[in-house]
Design a protein that fits this description.
By secondary structure, this protein is of the alpha/beta class. The chain has ten helices and 15 strands.
Length: about 400
């Protein structure tokens, strides 16, 4: 090999290495970026999913479970955010509860990063921003923008065909990294199957009455702006939906959990435990395909000229005008519907009531903004700040 050829190969390799570092370094920073949550006055204990299934201990898949226990015994509820980490409204809603809620009766379990690996993943190939920031009274609070599925860095390779356990239904190979397709989980399965198995163990061991899984969906998708529930949960879901529509003035309808589509939280939790499951969907214009660039602004205000044009042609499944679907409305809906589900259950079962205060409802969040309810980590006691 001539000296010129060798020099050319070395230069080419160096250029390739520079591009590799330039492209990979922002993704590594994103994966290592700590999201700070301040434990509010109602947090009585902090656990991890591995406390309920030790095989997760020390893995990236393990995640925090915040416990808010009232002075008076009562029922128990679990609320999960970031099952799909590209739908951060759930994370924000749960984080607001962690930082503000006080439980007077019963116990509340809160998981802000249910699929933690997905929160460390992202979709730069589709132009997603790596982060989004929310204005608070004390400055900007920044969060990672995640992905729908767990990172292949944490679970790989994907099978050619994912066969759901234990129902043996064949699903897309990608769904093995989707924690809303792996319920009720498998203790000797792949990491995301172990995550949902650990959550089922939490529900069973703690005898949890209600499980609420917070999601978001496209405005062009019919299953949005709704509560999804199986037969055993439908009465409470109906009462909650009718109440928020009449009393709080935002649209919310019901969707029945399909019996033949397996792996979903609102199906398997109810079938494999005594817990009553609910899945909440809020409209997220950011997720729609026919939009402009996937910017932080689009995520925050939900305003898009292409969706507005489609709305005028009645192609969307939610009301949509020039105001878009701002973050305040989406988070406010999740909080109000979650609180109303818990309230309706408590009315129906007084001995297992769950009484929560200091959590804002829809109108308050729309008026004050999401950031109003977050506390400054720099002013909090060190042991109250959790980085995840």
């Amino acid at each position: 090999m001539s000296r010129t050829t060798a020099r050319f190969k070395i230069i080419t390799a160096l250029i390739f290495l520079i591009f590799l570092i330039a492209g990979g370094w922002p993704l590594k920073k994103h994966r290592d970026f700590p999201v700070e949550i301040v434990c509010g006055p109602g947090v009585t204990d902090i656990k991890k999913l591995s406390d309920f299934f030790p095989a997760l201990k020390g893995s990236v898949a393990d995640t925090y479970v915040f416990v808010l226990e009232g002075k008076e015994p009562g029922g128990k509820a679990l609320i999960m955010g970031n099952t799909h980490a590209n739908e951060p409204e759930g994370l924000l809603s749960v984080a607001i509860m962690i930082e503000n809620a006080v439980v007077e009766k019963g116990t509340l379990y809160l998981i802000p990063f249910f699929n933690r690996s997905a929160s460390l993943n992202t979709r730069p190939g589709e132009g997603y921003p790596l982060y989004f920031s929310i204005t608070t009274p004390w400055g900007k609070k920044t969060f990672r923008m995640g992905n729908r599925d767990a990172s292949p860095l944490d679970q790989w390779p994907d099978p050619d065909i994912y066969i759901h356990y234990p129902e043996k239904q064949m699903l897309s190979y990608l769904d093995i990294r989707n924690t809303n397709r792996t319920w009720p989980g498998r203790k000797n399965g792949l990491p995301m199957e172990q995550v949902t198995y650990a959550a089922m163990e939490l529900l069973r061991q703690e005898k949890v009455d209600l499980a609420i899984d917070l999601h978001g969906a496209e405005t062009m998708f019919p299953v949005t702006n709704c509560i999804v529930a199986p037969e055993k949960s439908m009465r409470i879901a109906t009462l909650a939906s009718l109440t928020v529509k009449s009393m709080e003035g935002f649209e919310n309808h019901l969707e029945s959990s399909p019996e033949k589509f397996r792996g979903l939280s609102h199906r398997e939790i109810g079938d494999y435990s005594e817990t009553l499951p609910f899945l909440l969907e809020a409209p997220i214009p950011f997720l729609d395909q026919p939009t402009g660039p996937k910017t932080e602004k689009l995520f925050l205000d939900g305003q898009d000229e292409f969706l507005l044009s489609l709305a005028k042609r009645k192609k969307l499944f939610v009301p949509y005008d020039e105001s878009g679907w701002p973050l305040e409305k989406r988070v406010g809906q999740h909080l109000s519907v979650s609180l109303e589900i818990i309230r309706q259950y408590s009315r129906k079962t007084p001995a297992r009531a769950i009484i929560i205060k200091n959590v804002p409802r829809y109108a308050e969040v729309v008026r004050n903004g999401v950031g109003y309810y977050f506390h400054n980590p720099a002013e909090a006691e060190m042991d109250k700040v959790i980085k995840h």
